[in-house]
Amino acid sequence: MGSQGGFGQSKEFLDLVKSIGEARSKAEEDRIVLHEIETLKRRIIEPDTPKRKMKEYIIRLLYVEMLGHDASFGYIHAVKMTHDDALSLKRTGYLAVTLFLNEDHDLIILIVNTIQKDLKSDNYLVVCAALNAVCRLINEETIPAVLPQVVELLGHAKEAVRKKAVMALHRFFQRSPSSVSHLVSNFRKRLCDNDPGVMGATLCPLSDLITIDAKSYKDLVISFVSILKQVAERRLPKSYDYHQMPAPFIQIKLLKILALLGSGDKQASEQMYTVVGDIMRKCDSTSNIGNAVLYECICCVSSILPNSKLLEAAADAISKFLKSDSHNLKYMGIDALGRLIKMSPEIAEQHQLAVIDCLEDPDDTLKRKTFELLYKMTKSSNVEVIVDRMIDYMVNINDNHYKTEIASRCVELAEQFAPSNQWFIQTMNKVFEHAGDLVNIKVAHNLMRLIAEGFGEDDENADSQLRSSAVESYLHIIGEPKLPSAFLQVICWVLGEYGTADGKYSASYITGKLCDVAESHSSDDTVKAYAVSALMKIYAFEIAAGRKVDMLPECQSLIEELSASHSTDLQQRAYELQAVISLDAHAIGIVMPLDASCEDIEIDKSLSFLNSFVQQSFEKGAQPYIPENERSGVLDVGSLKSQDHHEASAHSLRFEAYELPKPVVPLRAPPVSPSPSTELVPVLEPSYPKEVRHTASVSSFSEAGPSELKLRLDGVQKKWGKPTYSSPAPSTSSSSSQKTVNGVMQSDSMGNPNSKTRNASYDSRRSQVEISPEKQKLAASLFGGALKPEKRPSSTGHKVSKTSINSGAKAQMEKGMISASEISTEKTTPLQPPPDLLDLGEPSVTNMPPFVDPFKQLEGLLDPSQDASALDYGASKSPDFMSLYADMPTSGQTSTVANPLSNNLESFGSANGGSTVVYPTQTNKGPNLRDALEKDALVRQMGVTPSTQNPNLFRDLLG
User: Fold this and answer.
1) The pTM is what?
2) Do 839 and 710 touch, CB atoms closer than 8 A?
3) Residue 522 burial (10 A CB sphere; 0-12, 13-18, 19+)
4) In Å, what is the CA distance from 792 to each residue of 252, 389, 425, 455?
5) pLDDT tens-digit series, residues 672-682
């Protein structure tokens, strides 16, 4: 080990610390630490290692772990050290395990017994070490093991033990509130402890409890006020002073608690006024801790019910913060001012020049805090200046997260305090142009709805002027590069609705602009969809007005391109555009009326317009519709789902023995009268309603080719896969429109011409610096000037007859955006791929007559008296029965397959209408010449002629 260095450590350890400190690169440091790890691995497992050396090894492991390397090989040695009787070794072990382990580590269980024993120790230092470990390592499962002993320690003679016991109970409350809910009264008792340290530690759990439920602790207001008064009067020991401030951290915690208890409570607030005012007067504003206590007093004043004297004192303190040269104090002053203007708005006018200086400060953090203050003090008289400043700041920053926040605030302020609709549209254009991709799509819908509804008054000229100005502004912006997608959607919608409304622009000019938008944003399907819809509206309006429609070549090429698009939505819009152009003026006026985006849409839920078609079908002999709950013989979807669940649960591992194989039945040719295959009558598949998605049809033969027999397995549940039906469920698509409205108008009284100004000292300090007229004008715009009654465009202020429906979505429905449900298309059954005959899927349950397996009939396994009419061999084409034997085993061994799930399948069949399910069962097959000849004769009786000259047909097939 070498000679001892300082602090009782070896020279080797001190050299290690020195070498790491002198390392010139991370790689060199890693090499030193890895060499130390290898050394510790060898030495820590040496037998008979002295405890003094083991203690140093544990400390060196702590050093290795703090440098980011793995020292898990030594964790168990730290746990063992906690069992030592020596105080220094035990405390070192507890220190190590609290830094090495977490509450979910596997080694925690090894130290629980040690902690229980140490909590009962006579040495309070051992108890304190154990309580430190309890706060770090005890999890929710091990809390009951130590909880009674911790509660007992609340009455310990040593104040350090009582303080750590309170901290342990607080930790238990954070881990599992239910485990200590019956011990909350102990916190109240410890609040009256003789030791200020125990009392200060009790404030932390009480603060959490008051945050959750303040009403239950209203009775403690007098106690908290008394404690705060004693602290402010310096009745605590001098050891609790910090920078000549009496227990400042206890004061801050008490002020936070009083702010929670006094919020909305007049009686509790009145009890706090005196002590809070005394603290604000006694605070030393020359030190950081004094300013921290003063700031917390301002926060408390802004939370409790207002008091005029406290508000004046708070305003003076804010003035000192804003006049300071320190950016930290300015930041604190802006934040405190933002809290206080909610109760006294005129305070902001006293510090208008200081706020403008902060707004122009190069410190980005201070500037952001100032914008938050301006956001809180915005009203209709200064909204234009504030929003313009915020937009200018948003353009110059690169932080997308904060840019999104600024954009959302600009939109919110514009919606609430917009002086005019023209200004609102121009502001939204700026926001969309510079941060369109970061703005919520609801903002775009609000803008489209505002343009469609207009001013909300019966002034059509003003509404048309608003729309014309919007069209002009969008035609001017549309040529700029890199416009956001949401903004382009708004532009396309407005141009489609009102591009040719005033007659200033021709249809060919507007359609050309829309085609340019669609071509320049070919990768954005949403923008192209809006552009095509706008084209359809313009052409429809032209046809309705009786004007001739001349489609531009670029529009024609765009429609042809979209007609072959991979997007079904774009295809449909292109086809609808072609269909609309071919309609006459009367039909166009009904399908796509002019300026009807905000009109109510009448929906006939009963579909009465189909009554005539239904009556014609009845006259032709059609059957009336039977409700699903009245249909007989149709599977109930609910029972089918429950049966699926039962089958899924039956797919788990089973340990009972398989069924015994069935006895072999000798093959005999049943007497079948020779008849051509064309005389066999096919059995039609049952047609079920579309609502019953999971109903599967029976396995039947389908005509896959002139000489190929295939087994239909569509709708059959896979036995070895996920328990579900393979029949495709019809996909449905729905589109929903979101309704958004502007903010509700609220009255705001922020102007008080009789308010007292307190910025004399600030002006005197700046008397030598001449204030520029521009800054004076800006201050007058933000804070002064005659206040106008606030008005904001709300949903109630627009036309009453028009509903606040999402303009974009509703316009598409109203203007003739034909949905897929209105186009009657004949649904055809998709072609099924040839199924695998070896896939032993579950049988389908149906109400058809019992199905006879053709395999079993051909092999002579069924009763000859079985009705042959149940077989479905096809009506027009002769099946190739020789393909049935193509996959037979060629070996001479007997192959017998038993189905272990037959019991479940039989019960499934009997539970669903009593239908019979028959499985194709393989029986003995092999190169038996006699059996082959009998099968050959049977096939010939069925009308099938062998395709080869070999009379022993099955002998060749079976080897």
Assistant:
1) 0.57
2) no
3) exposed
4) 41, 20, 13, 11
5) 444 444 344 44
